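TL;DR need structure tokens for one chain.
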Amino acid sequence: MVRLIDPYNATLAFVGAAFWGFGHGFTYACLFAKVPDVCEYGEYIEHKRHEGLTYGIN
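>> reply
TL;DR here they are.
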């Protein structure tokens, strides 16, 4: 959306990309933080660890 405001302003594009990346950083951090919890929950339910399968799918 920032590029639609002024498509030739490089500073505005860099600031917009920084905000976009900062927002995605939280999403990826939460996603990868939940994978060990999924492994633990699978072991709790099935009494088997499927770490390789879980990390491979992720």
